[in-house]
Each structure stands twice: as structure tokens, then as C-alpha cells.
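Mods, move this if it's the wrong board.
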Amino acid sequence: MQLTHLSLTNFRNFSRLDMDVPGGTLLLVGANAQGKTSLLEAVYFLATLTSFHASSDRQLINFIDGRNPLAVARIVADFTRRSGSHRLEVRIIQENEPGNGPRARKEVLLDGLKRKGAEAIGQFNAVLFLPQMLAVVDGAPDERRRYLNLALAQVIAHYADALADYTRALTQRNALLKQLFERQGDPAQLDYWDEQLAAHGAQLIHARIRSTQELDRLAARLHLELTHGEEVLRLNYQPAYDPLRPPNGRANGSGEAARQLGLPLDAPIDRSSYSLESIRRGFREALLRLRSEEVARGVTTIGPHRDELRFQANGIDLGVYGSRGQVRTAMLALKIAEMNWMKDKSGDWPVLLLDEVLAELDTTRRRDLLERLAQSEQALLTTTDLDLFVPEFVQRASLWQVHNGRVAPR
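Not the wrong board. C-alpha cells:
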């Protein structure tokens, strides 16, 4: 996959940008706060229809006239993949909603035709590294769930739809649980929402089980190379509803699957033998067993919205005990693994987006990382300091200067 042209209008600090994007490696050079990260953010928005670090879409709009209640940010990209050449356009439109003030909505067009967001996600694929993403390893659990959702939605069919349906069902079920707690009523009213939650939640759990195991294998090998054989990385997926361990604490099934629960935390646990239907049925039964407790608490206590993903190196939980360098190396290994994983799933290399990727790495790890970037079809990297890159890498790359919202060949 290759991004060939990018146009931005009123996006972040770009009032207008129109550029042909070279293939291979593009180095975006400039001081801080000039627009380098915003450019990467715009490209990633095309892949996920969300910003990794903006709390709302309204923050992405460049308000030329702050008094105008109507404003539009626009991202247009031409790209090629195995299926041919395509154009993807995303519009972020702020409108005044009577009684509620300004709100932002999105319009998405693929090859000139309007599409629903879930239909557009996955048409263009990208892998993004920002320094803030270290929180995926050492931050709150919702950072890790969000990471999984953004990666899986790009290449797993219907994942985005299942996530949206699950979120809606969860909101309705929580509202009903709160009502039952405050006003009493018949708990059987939960039956419908239990079915919805189990059906959509099982799709998420099923996809996460397989995807994290695939990413784990790829990331472990890459991390071992980046650390020169000194550290073994493990991705430990911990589903809140675990088909291996229902809420009664007894392992489901028998034999190897059940015995694995007695293994150390850093030993791989294989849940891939569980079918979508068995996960749905078990999740539904777990919700029924927990019904009284959840009515008393007024909230859904089990499901993919409470899943965890832990990163371990040599058995040590990096989110708790990892150094800054270990966390950064683990995240970079994960991102390169994610790139290879997306290629395996979709048949196309994703566009690789790396923001200040070499900061805080020693010389050896910088060199090792740059060697592995050569396998990507297209990579956009930002830096404030070209001296961080070896001369051979700089000579092979296209160099562009970013200054005050303007981008031009250097």
C-alpha cells in the first residue's frame, strides 16, 4: 500500500496542504510545533477515523474564524493497494445543535461515494508510533483496549461493527441495571441485552484471542533481535470473560486447556480452541450467573470493555517494573510486529508512521531499528535532529522540511 497524494484543509495547524507523497522512506524534518505530528495524525485518521490523542474530533479543526459556528476540516488521500488506486476523503464538520451547542460529525467518501465509518475503516491501513503511545504499555487498561481496537478494526472483517454494536448494547444494559437498582423491577428485562452483549462481545473476544497470539509470536521474535537476545517479550491477553476460567473460578473444559491455568504468568496460554459459539454461550451464562451482583452494583462487571493486555519481558511486567528504555523498545517491537501482522492479514503493507522514533534509544538500538524499517513499503518519520539517523539511511530517504504548517522538499 502506498499513499501517493495528501490534501489537508483546516486540519490542526494546516490551513491548506497539498502534496505528492514519495514512496519509500520520507523524513519530515522541523522544529517542535511546526506540524510534523499533525501530518502523521491526519494520515492515521484515514485508517481509523479517530485520533489517538485528541479527546474529540472538534480539536482537529483549524478554526480560521473563531466566530463562525460552522467549520470543516478535510483530509483527502490518493493511495494504491492490490485492489487498485483509490481516493479516500474524510470531512469533520462542526455544526451548532440547537440546545446543545457545537458538535462535530464525520462524512466519509471512498472513490466519490459516501460510506458508513465502519465500511471505510480498513480501506487504508496505517501503523502509528507516537511517544505518547508508551502509555499502551505502562498506562491505564483502556489505553491497551483502545490500541487493540484501532489495530484489529483495520484488518479484521466486521470488527468495527461488532465493537459499535457491543458499545451500544453495553450502554443500554448499564442504564437498565442502574434503573433496576434504583427502582427495582423484573431482572428478566436484562435477557434481551444479555443476548446482544454476548453475541457482539464474543466476536470481539474471539478476534482478540487470535490476534494477540499472532502479534505475540511476531513481537517476541523482533524484540529478541532488538535486545540482542537478552529479553523475551510476551503479550499476555487477559479477557474479563475468560473461556478458560468462568466467574465460578473453575476452568472450563478439561485436559491441556484447563491445566494451563497452573502455569506461570509468563507462559503462553492458548485459548484459540474455543469457537465463536462456545464463547458466546459461555459469556451469556456468565452474565446470568452475575446478574444479582450486577443489579446490586448497577453496572456490567464482565466483558471485553474490561479486558486487559499485559507486556512482560523475561517474566517482568513492564507496565509496573519496566524502565523507560524497556517500555520504548517493547512498543517499537510491537509496532513493527503490527506492520507485519497487517501485511499477513490484508496482503498489503500498511503505511508506517513514526514520530521521533529514535529519541531515548542508544546508538545500537537506533541502528537495529532503522535496518528493520527497510522492509516497509512506505514509511513517514518525523525528527527534529537528523544527526540521530545514520548517514546511509538519510541518503536513501526523501527529506522534507516542515515549518509553520508548510511542507516542502529540503
